[in-house]
Amino acid sequence: MTDAEATTARAEAPPGLLIVGLGLIGGSLAAGLRASGFGGRITACDPDAGELRRGLDMGLIDAGSTRLAELAPAADVIVLAVPVLAMEGLLAELDALNPGLKGQAVTDVGSTKATVRDAARRVFGRVPPTLVLGHPIAGSEKSGVAAADPELYAGHNVLLTPEADTDAEALARVRALWQACGARVLEMDVERHDAVLAQTSHLPHLLAFSLVDTLARQDARLDIFRYAAGGFRDFTRIAGSDPVMWRDIFTANRDAVLASLDDFEAGLARLRAAVEAGDGDAMLAAFGRASHARRYFESLLNKTSYQTEYAMQSQSQVTYRVRPGGSARGRVRVPGDKSISHRSIMLGALAEGVTTVTGFLEGEDSLATLQAFREMGVAIEGPSQGRVVIHGVGLHGLKAPSGPIYVGNSGTAMRLFAGLLAGQSFTSELAGDDSLTKRPMNRVAEPLRAMGALIDTAEGGRPPLTIHGGTPLAGLYYDMPVASAQVKSCLLLAGLYAEGETRVREPAPTRDHTERMLGGFGYPVARDGDTCWLEGGRRLTASPIDVPADISSAAFFMVAAAITPGSDLTLEHVGINPTRTGVINVLKLMGADLELIDEREVGGEPVAEVRVRYAPLTGIDIPAEQVALAIDEFPALFIAAANAAGTTRLRGAAELRVKESDRLAAMADGFATIGVEHSLHDDGIDIVGRGGAEGPSYGGGRIDSLGDHRIAMAFAVAALRAGEEVVIDNCANVATSFPNFTELARRIGMGLEVQGPETESHHEP
Ligand code: S3P
């Protein structure tokens, strides 16, 4: 085709979009816009008349020319899809045609932004307000318009890097263009863009080019590639990319690429040293971190895994719709105990030797703890079907993490970590999600400071916490003002690193998993009545851990069976540590038909099958000594109370106000919605149950769980005796403690449907 032919007859072409550079990127933009029903005229300018003809034949463009001057003046929006080093000449040509780009929104697709910005400054003396620099994060190793794909940008990010004085209308036009192709448009500044892309795109391309080039040179006949399998193919696909484009990118983004290459070389040197020394733990630690991070990344792309919901829980909309009625029958084993799972990773990491954990809870909270230790250099295999193998590094073997430790929704993790990290030589930061960021941390920060730790909190003693390393700790006698296993455990963990004895007195018995597990790891913990203590400076020896099913999760199904006529449900392998059995004690006091079968001890923790059948319940005054023993089970117990005959009264439970939500208020709000008579108190609640086997105990309605897993599960169970559907919003956090709750709920006969992303069954492969 001649230049003249390529220029279709367009004396008075309607204004529209001009794509300069009709290759894969420009062509896919045209294709995406066409597919979206974009009504405007699309023209293209390219030095290759053959590409223009192909674009016309494919129906992607209405007109094409090899000369910019023929198309640019009529365009409203111009997209520069040429290699970055060609941008300056192009901008100068555009300036000559329309000085300062007035009235035209111009954008580019270059992989580096500082060079394009600098080119614009040289040409125009500034970045013109209508020039909106951008970069679609999508592509393929293919090039040319023939490879144009209307779906190339769908679901991908497009990064725009507007300046402070960028014209709002031009920005909106460029945004709209990409959004029409199904892309997500984000804004960031030029420097950040270039640094991020150097790491995530430019460095991997350099490595792929280098690997293929190195191998190809070693084997001039390229015989070696005959034997190359999937790994080689996956790793080197991008080495087939356009060499000119990449020469320009590495020239343009030189400094940022060199910085990321330095980091990479340091990491490679560490791995080389590990391979050379045969240091299996160091390899496992690095591979484990990488493998986990890769799966996390995969899940972000696929939007399927637990981690995705974890990362996006503030936005994620998981709603339970629960049909009224249903049954509670069968045998189920709920997932592993959350408290014990956290501790198994912590103590396993600090022990000497290899600890194998079975029955580990693969919920978001305990997985965050596991990942935190990986980030501190601990080699951890799994989890796989609840099995985790931890290669302990000893009390002084942790390494400084490269960034803040994120513990998600978990108060237990944050408080226990605070004690453990206070004893390290490095400084660390602990951060959590929105809910955790509201919870009180002075209850650990203050006694830790009394031991000599240096801890900063945000205002009001809230997270995040900064724990300064290298400060010597001294043992402390601490009389806890609140009954808290988390505070007790935090201080005992700090006590491992302290000079002398650390003693903790508790105002009421709280869960003693830390003491038991320390004992199991050969670290003596003494107890006399309400006080326990240990001496710092000893060592932990690896020991296998069998995590029982979590009584706190089982509690929802115990209550389900206790309130549902005709029920007969057996919960298997439930942990019945006496510091956790408040729920069983209270249900029995209310008249529940609840039986413990085959009581036994497994790895230092008592377990049993728990069989529950329906029996009419009666309201009671909950004995004060049961409060700490049932602290996590009250949302479930309140549902039992709503189905009992008469009033159930709870007092002395102000702690419920500082859990994942204010659980007294959250339950009261839910009761108000479904029509359960109650009165709220500062430290408790009175619940007037309707009781009886006949008919529903209350109505239905729409409830906000406030992102609190236990509020969500409690109201799901309530639906068994509701007169109408119960809809519960904000349920994503159920995955923190009970990842397969909805599956098991359906299995026992509850009519539970999930709207939004399912939060369960996202086990790692
Ligand atoms: C836990 C202790 C309890 C409990 C929490 C888990 C633990 O908190 O509510 O879910 O694993 O130590 P407090 O110790 O703050 O009461």
From TrEMBL:
<feature type="binding site">
    <location>
        <position position="486"/>
    </location>
    <ligand>
        <name>phosphoenolpyruvate</name>
    </ligand>
</feature>
<feature type="active site" description="Proton acceptor">
    <location>
        <position position="632"/>
    </location>
</feature>
<feature type="binding site">
    <location>
        <position position="484"/>
    </location>
    <ligand>
        <name>3-phosphoshikimate</name>
    </ligand>
</feature>
<dbReference type="InterPro" id="IPR036968">
    <property type="entry name" value="Enolpyruvate_Tfrase_sf"/>
</dbReference>
<protein>
    <recommendedName>
        <fullName>3-phosphoshikimate 1-carboxyvinyltransferase</fullName>
        <ecNumber>2.5.1.19</ecNumber>
    </recommendedName>
</protein>
<feature type="binding site">
    <location>
        <position position="338"/>
    </location>
    <ligand>
        <name>3-phosphoshikimate</name>
    </ligand>
</feature>
<feature type="binding site">
    <location>
        <position position="663"/>
    </location>
    <ligand>
        <name>phosphoenolpyruvate</name>
    </ligand>
</feature>
<keyword id="KW-0963">Cytoplasm</keyword>
<comment type="pathway">
    <text>Metabolic intermediate biosynthesis; chorismate biosynthesis; chorismate from D-erythrose 4-phosphate and phosphoenolpyruvate: step 6/7.</text>
</comment>
<comment type="function">
    <text>Catalyzes the transfer of the enolpyruvyl moiety of phosphoenolpyruvate (PEP) to the 5-hydroxyl of shikimate-3-phosphate (S3P) to produce enolpyruvyl shikimate-3-phosphate and inorganic phosphate.</text>
</comment>
<dbReference type="InterPro" id="IPR001986">
    <property type="entry name" value="Enolpyruvate_Tfrase_dom"/>
</dbReference>
<feature type="binding site">
    <location>
        <position position="710"/>
    </location>
    <ligand>
        <name>phosphoenolpyruvate</name>
    </ligand>
</feature>
<comment type="similarity">
    <text>Belongs to the EPSP synthase family.</text>
</comment>
<dbReference type="Pfam" id="PF02153">
    <property type="entry name" value="PDH_N"/>
</dbReference>
<dbReference type="GO" id="GO:0008977">
    <property type="term" value="F:prephenate dehydrogenase (NAD+) activity"/>
</dbReference>
<dbReference type="Pfam" id="PF20463">
    <property type="entry name" value="PDH_C"/>
</dbReference>
<dbReference type="Pfam" id="PF00275">
    <property type="entry name" value="EPSP_synthase"/>
</dbReference>
<dbReference type="InterPro" id="IPR006264">
    <property type="entry name" value="EPSP_synthase"/>
</dbReference>
<feature type="binding site">
    <location>
        <position position="343"/>
    </location>
    <ligand>
        <name>3-phosphoshikimate</name>
    </ligand>
</feature>
<keyword id="KW-0560">Oxidoreductase</keyword>
<dbReference type="InterPro" id="IPR046826">
    <property type="entry name" value="PDH_N"/>
</dbReference>
<dbReference type="InterPro" id="IPR003099">
    <property type="entry name" value="Prephen_DH"/>
</dbReference>
<feature type="binding site">
    <location>
        <position position="659"/>
    </location>
    <ligand>
        <name>3-phosphoshikimate</name>
    </ligand>
</feature>
<comment type="subunit">
    <text>Monomer.</text>
</comment>
<keyword id="KW-0028">Amino-acid biosynthesis</keyword>
<dbReference type="InterPro" id="IPR046825">
    <property type="entry name" value="PDH_C"/>
</dbReference>
<dbReference type="InterPro" id="IPR008927">
    <property type="entry name" value="6-PGluconate_DH-like_C_sf"/>
</dbReference>
<dbReference type="InterPro" id="IPR013792">
    <property type="entry name" value="RNA3'P_cycl/enolpyr_Trfase_a/b"/>
</dbReference>
<feature type="binding site">
    <location>
        <position position="439"/>
    </location>
    <ligand>
        <name>phosphoenolpyruvate</name>
    </ligand>
</feature>
<feature type="binding site">
    <location>
        <position position="338"/>
    </location>
    <ligand>
        <name>phosphoenolpyruvate</name>
    </ligand>
</feature>
<dbReference type="InterPro" id="IPR023193">
    <property type="entry name" value="EPSP_synthase_CS"/>
</dbReference>
<feature type="binding site">
    <location>
        <position position="339"/>
    </location>
    <ligand>
        <name>3-phosphoshikimate</name>
    </ligand>
</feature>
<feature type="binding site">
    <location>
        <position position="411"/>
    </location>
    <ligand>
        <name>phosphoenolpyruvate</name>
    </ligand>
</feature>
<keyword id="KW-0808">Transferase</keyword>
<feature type="domain" description="Prephenate/arogenate dehydrogenase">
    <location>
        <begin position="15"/>
        <end position="305"/>
    </location>
</feature>
<feature type="binding site">
    <location>
        <position position="486"/>
    </location>
    <ligand>
        <name>3-phosphoshikimate</name>
    </ligand>
</feature>
<keyword id="KW-0057">Aromatic amino acid biosynthesis</keyword>
<dbReference type="InterPro" id="IPR036291">
    <property type="entry name" value="NAD(P)-bd_dom_sf"/>
</dbReference>
<feature type="binding site">
    <location>
        <position position="632"/>
    </location>
    <ligand>
        <name>3-phosphoshikimate</name>
    </ligand>
</feature>
<dbReference type="GO" id="GO:0003866">
    <property type="term" value="F:3-phosphoshikimate 1-carboxyvinyltransferase activity"/>
</dbReference>
